[in-house]
Design a protein that fits this description.
This protein is mainly α and 275 residues long. The chain contains 15 helices and no strands. The longest helix is centred in the first third of the chain and has 23 residues.
Length: 275
């Protein structure tokens, strides 16, 4: 049988229990109740932010920001795995949350594993408010993804004329090339309804006949993709109809491969231009 605790021992335990009770009462009254420990080294603050981000509530996101939050590491699970908080708010079109995140320490040029920035997402989504907030917050329009593509190239390829305008106004380099040697103008060629994007890029200083690493020019690309209006536009602006790519094919050769109405129409236009 164990020996009953002595009187001094009981008194000591009673004092400790009373002290612990007063401490807990103080913490709760001061608005700082103790937080439970998180498993696997995940802090309560990061769990809170991830939960708030998933709501899509810009006001709640702003309210969740506090010192010490890691705003540049990607989420490790869930729908937005691999994206930083800034990528997430742009993806969800929460432009009002962009400036608070940047002011709290989010890197405006943070990139995903494949080099995608929040600005690239905003450009492709043609979210003018998000583009404005990111550019005002210091995002560079010339950061490249893993393929060497800039936000301007991606916007041009997606046919987003308002994004192209915003990025050019912010100083985006219209002559830079990606990993395949293609410019923003090359990416814009062949995209239906992209005539205005082509005009804007050329007005900003893009070069008309710059080819990619395979020697394919914007005119060749438009002919191959059977965009009649673009072929006419590029020829009117002075594109070289007789240029050939590394495989020896011209824009006319590419048009002749097509047997549909547009291909035949473009072939006739290019034949006339070559005379």
């Amino acid at each position: 049988m164990s020996t009953p605790p002595s009187a001094p021992r009981l008194a000591y335990l009673a004092v400790m229990l009373v002290a612990a009770g007063f401490l807990l009462l103080y913490l709760f009254r001061s608005g700082n109740p103790p937080r439970p420990a998180q498993a696997d080294g995940v802090s309560q603050s990061s769990v809170d932010l991830e939960s708030v981000l998933s709501t899509g509530d810009a006001a709640a996101i702003r309210g969740a920001l506090r010192p010490g939050l890691d705003l540049n590491s990607p989420m490790m699970k869930g729908t937005y795995r691999g994206l930083s908080p800034l990528h997430i708010v742009v993806t969800r079109a929460l432009a009002d949350a962009i400036a608070p995140l940047i002011q709290a320490g989010a890197d405006p040029d943070a990139r995903t594993a494949d080099g995608t920035t929040a600005l690239m997402i905003a450009a492709v989504q043609e979210s003018t408010p998000a583009l404005s907030e990111l550019l005002t917050g210091g995002a560079s329009p010339d950061v490249r993804d893993s393929y060497g593509r800039s936000a301007l190239m991606l916007a041009a390829r997606a046919g987003k004329s308002r994004s192209v305008e915003s990025l050019i106004s912010a100083g985006a380099d219209v002559r830079t090339v990606d990993g395949t040697g293609a410019t923003a103008l090359w990416h814009s060629a062949g995209v239906p309804g992209n005539d205005e994007v082509i005009r804007r890029l050329l007005a900003a200083g893009a070069e008309l006949d710059v080819a990619d690493s395979q020697g394919v020019t914007p005119l060749m690309r438009s002919a191959e993709l059977a965009d009649t209006s673009q072929v006419i536009l590029l020829l009117d602006l002075g594109a070289a109809a007789g240029s050939r790519s590394r495989d020896g094919r011209s824009a006319l050769d590419r048009a002749r491969v097509r047997t549909d109405k547009h291909g035949l129409e473009i072939a006739a236009i290019l034949e006339q231009a070559g005379r």
